[in-house]
Prior knowledge:
By secondary structure, chain A is mostly beta strands. In chain A, about 0% of the residues lie in helices and about 55% in strands.
Amino acid sequence: xxxxxxxxxxxNVPEGATVAFNCTYSNSASQSFFWxxxxxxxxxxxxxxxxxxxxxDGRFTAQLNRASQYISLLIxxxxxxxxxxxxxxxxxxxxxxxxxxxTSLAVNP
Amino acid sequence: EAQVTQNPxxxxxxxxxxxxxxxxxxxxxxxxxxxxxxxxxGLRQIYYSMNVEVTDKGDVPEGYKVSRKEKRNFPLILExxxxxxxxxxxxxxxxxxxxxxxxxxxxSRLTVL
Lengths: 109, 113
């Protein structure tokens, strides 16, 4: 089993839709969790850190479920500009950042 | 403007010809790291540095070298490039040690023939 797993998608949704991605992690001792966004052939950019209590930034909501060992990203009112690959990253043992392979989102007009 | 700058952005070279990819950050970050990204394999860490003169191997260090003589610079050296080092390379930095919140450079696409 991979340490961090994501559904690769692609998720195809219409503008205005709500879409959610999950990312599962295998190490129950993981401490920190992040969502990054990566546009095609560009650098990853930090979207959100994921806190135990969950956090929200505009249309984006991130949540952590420690019992089931996954984090989620919810995007409301999807925009065309949300089309990208969403990477999750987990700080595991030895403060090492472990990356998922990403979930591809395409928002269609 | 806060940024991580990599050069060159694109490079085609031949097997065995030494090359250096430079990385510089202007945010006074302590932590810097190099990644390579390949289809189906995702981001894999090559080397990282917690501070000046402190470097450590990541997951795929073979064939690479790094140095951290100054806080702002973290060059990646390929002493004898091979075709399996054809990849997209990213430099990243983080303030105050390692937090997981990384700032990435724009990437360097390297092709080794």
